[in-house]
Amino acid sequence: MLRNLSIAFALCVFAAPAMPAVTPYPLIFHSQMVATNGTHLNVRVGGTGPAVVLLHGFGDTGDMWAPLAIALSRTHKVIVPDLRGMGSSDHPDTGYTKKNQALDIAGVMDALKVEKADLVTHDIGNMVGYSLAAQFPARITRWAVIDAPLPGIGNWDKIILMPLLWHFNFRGPDVERLVQGRERIYLDRFWNELSADPKKIDEETRQHYAEIYAKPKAMHDAFEQFAAFSQDAKDNKALLEKGGKLKMPVLALGAGSSFGTGMETELRFVADNVTGAIVPDSGHWIMEENPQATVKLVTDFLAK
């Protein structure tokens, strides 16, 4: 599996025309700042029905989910936060362990009077999502988890040795000085190397996120997400030992040119009821590279 992951990450093998720029949220959605767990998160809310929470990762914000949020809003109350220190949420100095950020999301659910929700996550959102589901298993009804491993779980210790993941330890005051004013260059590295075809991530999309990550403290707090991985690994092992495997249905969704079937392998370490699936013609940036397939896979899973 690890050899396949390395090859998949390294090769850009698909060719396709550029996808449309960042999709705006329609007027049925509103944004609000929600006080939770000692900070404030920017949260988009729209639609009616059973609740579903969408969590983004690094290089994106909750903006990434707009096509999926629009589709789900026909049948769900859709809740899309920006994670702590990211997007338009507040930038506290501490609290970037995923166990603590799970409390952020539980607090958002409380503030919106949502007792239970489906969960859809990507990248760092996966890590927050696992901690949320492990700490509050009765509150998560289904979990679609997309294209990133969980700290301390399964093959984590081998996965983090992959050369393409050097950025996990790239942080500190001097690093921030190097990146300051060059956020676009730094982010282009992720979009280019972790995609199946860099052309699928268009100029407007790149500029949109580069401007967000160039705001004060934004890149510092993004680095803090990675800095917490060592503690996250300890926390995840403890949560698994204490609570056992998750029982809710889990969709382990890997991108065809990224984690692929490895996602199902990793999620079986923490969940009993796992279904694997692949986003075809896509690298890691599933909503930018193949939103149509991602939306169908997730909506079909949540509709079961």
In a few lines, what is going on in this structure?
The chain is of the alpha/beta class. The protein is 40% helix and 17% strand.
The H-and-E topology, N to C, reads as: HEEEHEHEHEHHHHHHEHEHH
Q: State which percent range the strand residues make up.
A: 15-25%
The first-to-last residue Cα distance is 29 Å
Structural Rg = 18 Å
Output the strand order for the largest sheet: 1-2-4-3-5-6-7-8
What is the strand tally? Answer: 8
Overall structural class, as computed from helix and strand content, comes to alpha/beta
- CATH class term: Alpha Beta
Would you kindly provide a written description of the structure presented here, covering whatever features stand out?
The protein has 304 residues and is an alpha/beta fold. The chain has a single domain (2-303), classed as Alpha/Beta hydrolase fold, catalytic domain (Rossmann fold, 3-Layer(aba) Sandwich), CATH 3.40.50. It contains 13 helices and eight strands. Strands 1-2-4-3-5-6-7-8 form an eight-stranded mixed sheet, with helices on both faces. The relative contact order is 0.18.
Task: Please specify the SSE layout and strand pairing.
Blueprint: H1 2-10, E1 29-36, E2 39-46, E3 51-55, H2 66-72, E4 77-81, H3 98-111, E5 117-122, H4 124-135, E6 140-146, H5 156-159, H6 173-179, H7 183-193, H8 203-213, H9 218-227, H10 229-243, E7 250-255, H11 262-267, E8 274-279, H12 286-289, H13 291-303
Parallel strand pairs: 3-4, 3-5, 5-6, 6-7, 7-8
Antiparallel strand pairs: 1-2, 2-4
Helix pairs in contact: 2-13, 3-4, 4-10, 7-8
